[in-house]
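Friendly challenge for the regulars: who can give me the structure tokens for this chain first? No prize, just bragging rights.
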Amino acid sequence: MPKRTDAEPLFHGATFDDMLFRPQEGVVESRRQVDISMPLVRGIVLKLPLVGANMDTVTGPEMAKALALEGSLGFLHRNCSIDEEAAAVRHVKRQHAYIIEQPRCLHRGIGLGEARRHMERHNVSGILVEERPGSGVLAGILSHRDIPNFPVPDGEPIESFMTPFARLVTARPDIAVEEAEQLMFRRRVEKLPLIGPGRQIQGLITMRDLRLAKNKPWSSKDAKGRLLVGAAIGARGDFLERAEALLAAGADCLLMDVAHAHSVSVERGVRAFRKRCDGVPLVCGNVGTFEGARFLARLGIAAVKVGIGPGRGCRTRIETGAGVPQLQAIREVGLALGARVPAIADGGVRDDKDIAFAILAGASTVMLGSALAGTDESPGMVIDDPGTGQKVKLYRGMTSPQAVLANADPEEADDLLAVPQEGQSVELPYRGSVLAILARIRGHLQSAVSYAGETSLRDARAKVGRAPGKFLIRLSEASRKESFIR
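First reply, four minutes later:
Bragging rights claimed.
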């Protein structure tokens, strides 16, 4: 491990617009051949090394789902009740699994109107029908094709319209995915219930999920084919109860998110967490120094989040003067952690090249906030700005007054606002779907690796990390203008 406690002079005071890297001889025929996969924590590798920020205007269930489908991962925010965050985890884990282990069911006496509303609310094209509430005994399937287009009383029982068990194609619970796909194709069915003794419902396989798995082989999934998702906790209060609820809901890793993680309160929190949830991958942050990173590494953290005040929604540097320029912080943390613990660069990304620089400087993945906000998948409504006529969405730091009050008890509002806040809210232009943004970043990262003369992002990072002075150029004011002002 390095003995120095800060970055080399090349990185002192440096952030993303202070550098270029020297183009090297290209070794790939096409950038599409470039492998940009990087580890998030041990056991989780992201094919697109991006992480959705745990902010209530960035990562809700829809953003987490979209990120996982594209090979990344989202950390669900905790600015809500424990039950709400756990429900968000369950929602993501239920999407696009090879096998839905606990499929939603309605009993055969439910009215058709209620069934319609249930299917619309959960965005499903069909639902299993059980004999009695909670019995788990399969009676049939109700699909959109079974629901008449002509008026029918809402109270009419769904057993009058469902496809009954005797006409269903079913399979045993241990059927292989390949065998299930062949059976479904041969019998021309879209849903395959998995049935145990006594017609007990043991799971469900859908053709939509099987097709999606083939069309998006790079998606971030667990061993059961479920989308990966992370979730945030704090280091005080009910954080242990929250952690247990999130893990029970299926969260793949947790993030202990604290503005200043190089602290005794975080140490207490991590030790308490380990006693209750030992063996769970725990990401922790934020820190911005060599010493802060070593502090978290000694606590056994699975990944360290890097960044003190560089984000668009953060005012910490302005209000307190505390912080480290982000590229310097990433390099210091990378030197402290070595190859043992991955680092997540959090904040300061304005352009796609910033993501490449963050990883070349020592990060493994990059957390995005404002870069993902303003999209269809981010929480919040699209509104028309009356001053400009443009469509916008709100983006706010999690210590902004608006975020602090969003889930607070009204009686505590004055006490909460009495503590000076270090976050702010801004309006961002509406950007459409996040999928276009992720595709663009993927292509630019692959191009950056090609310019670096390597076939993988890991190799490019290792090469620059061994001898940064050989590959990185510190810019003058004139060269900065030449490079980035257009």
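The two ends are 42 Å apart (CA to CA). The mean pLDDT is 92. Your move, everyone else.
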